[in-house]
Amino acid sequence: MSDYQPTYINGIARAKRLTIQHTPWMGDWFTSHSPRNDNSNAEGQWGQWVNLAVSILKHPATAITDPEAHQAAKGLTVHRYYSEVGRTLTDDEITTLFGGNHA
Q: For the chain, which residues make up each domain, given as ranges?
């Protein structure tokens, strides 16, 4: 493997179009990634982003960089989503939370 080849991170959630990768040549930098599209245009439902965040909080690297956040995530579950999600936001919830007309 080359230092220029981004790599998936063990323990970090992956959905159809959403994860992060380690980019070794950049040191302590990580990039968004869409496995399906094989590019950095990560996209997904809110619940998939939440699941990604939970997996980041539970990762051993978080125990080093932010022990308090790592501790707070201990009781949370990382799901094995691909294209599904536990619950989606309704159009009304999206409008209430983010404004605009999403119908």
A: 7-98
